[in-house]
Known about the structure:
The chain is an all-alpha fold. The protein is built from 8 helices and 2 strands.
Amino acid sequence: MWFEVILGIIAFIPALTANSLAVISGGGTPMDFGRKLGNKRILGDGKTWRGFIGGGLFGGLIGFLIHLAMGSVLYSNYLLLPFALSFGCMFGDLLGSLVKRRMGLNRGENVPVLDQYDFVVGTFIVIILTHYSWTVETYFTDHGLLTLISLMIIVPVLHRGVNIIGYKMKMKKEPW
Ligand code: CTP
Ligand code: MG
């Protein structure tokens, strides 16, 4: 039982790492090209093409390396699955910023819960659409639900920890 839970958490690593890698690769042209909706930015300057693509590719690559190390037990040989997880994370991060801008919040302003879970929602949307049976098996059936609950507990702790490190390393402007 716990073995499957641990595997399910390891499988989620591309989504857990993509965001941090986006901080490193980010910069340049914003994804909304500076456009506004009403008098507020659509996504803001914190969401760039380089961050989105860099985070997605790096996270997926990490998943691919984990796949090479662990064999088919993790992703059942779906080679695009790590990339679905990492790009899903980056997509969820965009949804979070979209909501924050509509709420009238500036780039980097802190919204508890939304900041920690937006990427999980985006990841699940993308993996359900692209790898439905694997997702249901890994996160929604008996041991899967335990995996999902464990993930939900681990995610905010990891997110906060990594962001504090990023802030101390001067990679990030805020410690959240
Ligand atoms: N980043 C990026 N492109 C992305 C996602 C992130 O360039 N698609 C980089 C940006 O430099 C961003 C940093 O990673 O500032 C941290 O990401 P995040 O905390 O998600 O962005 P915020 O700046 O806090 O902006 P927002 O308020 O929209 O979340
Ligand atoms: Mg932020």
